[in-house]
Design brief:
The structure is a homodimer of 239-residue chains. The first copy, chain A, is mainly alpha-helical. Helices cover 66% and strands 6% of the residues of chain A. The first copy, chain A, is built from 9 helices and 4 strands, in the order H-E-H-H-E-E-E-H-H-H-H-H-H. The first copy, chain A, binds a DNA duplex (30 and 30 nucleotides) through helix 3.
DNA sequence: ATAACCAAGTTGCCTGACAAGATGGCAACT
DNA sequence: AGTTGCCATCTTGTCAGGCAACTTGGTTAT
């Protein structure tokens, strides 16, 4: 079935070529705006076939590092560097990586909560309140409430109206939530006492947002995330 | 939302196919761990050739959405969602987007400064101090000092030892700096008075980091970024 | 000199083919 | 029977060659 015993699969030729070109561009070997060699030429110099070159270049195009014009050639993108940022998270649960990820999540979420308090519309507030109630219902139902927890934070982030916050938060929440799930499967320890605390912290955040108290919202969010990180630490295996 | 409405260029077949598969996976049309149709099959069903299918799937692999095993097939990745986050920034001067970007930058940078104050080694402090002096030299030289400014912040972020902060900050700094450069080319207005203020704010940050005053570092950073945003607003064209 | 034009180069895409790895079933053996 | 070993078959990875659409720069004709 799954059992993804990921031995490092051999990198494909397109992989190594893409990385090589990427490296050459970053190193300034090809200047911005410069035309890079034709596919045929790259194929011969690197000893691979043209489809491989196409795949590699296609990847760079996708990452905004080069743009190509039919009939003309491929050019490395101007405007210093890529127009898309890639955040690679190795699926592997490396403790260090998870902690770094959580730090980033805390930074994003606390700022987002502050902004949400400043900008929330009445509709935003209603949405956040609904998620708060959904969380309450989950608790009384005896559910894990992880999904509702995430939804609550998502509703807050959406009130910022900042797409970057929204996207990043979605991604990070997903990641961390996934980590929690897999980790919890090992320890299998339910903590209903914790959830009451979570809900109290959530309520503080909600009240601050309701009152448009930006500073208070930030502090409430920081407090909540700090507590959450501590609760989470239980699931972390000691190194 | 992130409609790739690249007006300049018609989307390639691989593009549309990749987006389509991406959409199907996100929509749950293909479950995690499920094997998706063979390349040949996809080629016939979508009416394109196998190389195109390969390119599209290669892109999804690159983004961590699917994994493929030679001889077996391609499977959509487990672990809820992608393992890489893509932040697409349309290269061009959309005021809304720049403001959102700057907000994100402020969130990252102020948190990073706080962390840096907690974790800095003596070596980190020296590196940051060096950049501070370089900035001073640039001012006295009459330079723009944008590069030195960025380098100062980079040195701080590196002191966090958090790779995600480092990478994201690098990207955002690059983007914003690029915006400043192009915008400044229009207004072409040098502001030596501003730079003295910048330097003062930088010094406050430095001192707080030196004293390991996390709270003070955060406040100094927030103050600096707030001021910087206001100075930057000059370059923003009214909508 | 200027304008139309054509040939070479380049990307976008296709067909066909072979090698390497994986899978499932069939046959042989215990 | 149950297990083991082998093989046909499928799938991905890679290659070769070729045609169409487009860009570019020089050449020719006016």
């Amino acid at each position: 079935m799954s059992a993804p015993s990921h031995l490092d699969r051999a990198p494909s030729l397109a992989d190594v070529l893409a990385h090589r070109l990427e490296h050459d561009i970053a190193q300034g070997h090809y200047a911005p705006g410069e035309k890079l060699p034709s596919e045929q030429q790259l194929a011969t110099t690197y000893g691979v076939s043209r489809p491989i070159v196409r795949e590699a270049i296609g990847r760079l195009k996708h990452d905004g590092l080069v743009t190509s014009r039919q009939g003309s050639g491929a050019f490395v993108a101007e405007s210093g560097g890529a127009s898309v940022f890639r955040l690679d998270v190795s699926n592997f649960k490396d403790r260090q990586e998870i902690e770094s990820l959580i730090e980033l999540l805390m930074a994003i979420e606390s700022s987002a909560t502050e902004l949400a308090a400043q900008r929330r519309t009445d509709q935003d507030l209603i949405a956040i309140g609904n998620q708060l109630e959904a969380m309450q219902a989950a608790i009384e139902r005896g559910d894990s409430g992880v999904d509702e927890d995430v939804a609550f934070h998502q509703a807050i982030v959406e009130a910022t109206k900042n797409p970057f916050f929204m996207d990043l938060s979605t991604f990070l929440d997903r990641r961390v939530r996934h980590f929690i799930r897999t980790a919890r499967a090992n320890t299998a320890k339910l903590q209903t006492g914790h959830m009451m605390a979570v809900q109290d912290e959530h309520r503080d955040i909600f009240n601050a947002i309701r009152d448009r108290d930006a500073q208070g919202a930030r502090q409430a969010a920081e407090n909540h995330l700090k507590q959450a990180a501590q609760r989470l630490a239980i699931y972390m295996k000691p190194v």
